[in-house]
Write a structure and sequence with these properties.
Layout (H helix, E strand, L loop, with lengths): L6 E2 L19 E8 L1 H6 L10 H7 L20 E11 L12 H11 L3 E4 L2 H8 L6 E7 L2 E5 L14 H12 L10
C-alpha cells in the first residue's frame, strides 16, 4: 500500500530532493511547493505526467524550444532559475504540511541572488511563503527588490484551475524588461 505522506529524508539528512538552479542576475526564478513524486523519482523538476510547465515555457516564449524535465539545469543560461519552498520532502501538495515549508531559506536565497521576478507556480507556494491569501498575476508584495508573480499550477492534478494567461503576462514582463523595482527598462 502506498503512503499518502510525503517522502522524507532521514533525520539529520540536509540534502534536498532537487538542487536549486540559482545564480546572481537571473530574470525569473520559478518556485513550486515541493517536488512531486514523479519529479523526485526522475530527479528532475516538473516531471510528472501531464505537467504543463515545460510545454508552457516554450509556448509563451520563455524557452527557445520545449525542454525535457531532465534538461532543467539548462534554464540558467536562459536567465531562469528553479527552486521549491519545501526542499527536503516530495509528494502531492495535499500531503504537505506547513512545517515542510522553509520560508526563511527561500527569502535568504532571493535576497542573495536578487532575481528580477520570483514566480510562484501555485497559489499554495505563494501563500505559504507570504502568509496571506494571493491572487494570480503580479503582486504588490516584494522580497527586497524582487517582484512577485503567482501563476496557476502547471500540475496535471490542478488542471481544473489551469489558465495560461498569467504565464503569457509573465513572458511579456520579461520581454518588456521589467526591472526589479517594477519600472520598465528603456
Amino acid at each position: 500500500m502506498r503512503s499518502s505522506w510525503p517522502n522524507r529524508r532521514q533525520a539529520g539528512d540536509v540534502r534536498t530532493v532537487l538542487p536549486d538552479v540559482m545564480a546572481p542576475g537571473l530574470v525569473i526564478v520559478f518556485c513550486g511547493t515541493a517536488a512531486g513524486t514523479a519529479s523526485a523519482r526522475r530527479k528532475a523538476y516538473y516531471a510528472g505526467p501531464g505537467n504543463a510547465f515545460w510545454p508552457t515555457l516554450f509556448e509563451v516564449g520563455l524557452t527557445p524550444r520545449r525542454l525535457e524535465p531532465e534538461e532543467y539545469a539548462s534554464v540558467r543560461s536562459l536567465g531562469l532559475g528553479l527552486t521549491d519552498l519545501a526542499k527536503q520532502v516530495s509528494g502531492a501538495d495535499r500531503t504537505l504540511l506547513r512545517e515542510h515549508f522553509d520560508r526563511g531559506s527561500l527569502l535568504e536565497k532571493i535576497g542573495r541572488y536578487r532575481p528580477r521576478i520570483l514566480a510562484f507556480t501555485s497559489k499554495r507556494a505563494a501563500e505559504e511563503c507570504l502568509g496571506h491569501a494571493v491572487r494570480y498575476g503580479l503582486l504588490p508584495d516584494l522580497i527586497r527588490q524582487t517582484r512577485l508573480v503567482v501563476l496557476p499550477s502547471p500540475s496535471g492534478a490542478a488542471r481544473r484551475y489551469w489558465d495560461v494567461g498569467p504565464w503569457h503576462d509573465l513572458a511579456r514582463m520579461r520581454e518588456a524588461g521589467t526591472r526589479s523595482d517594477g519600472g520598465e527598462t528603456k
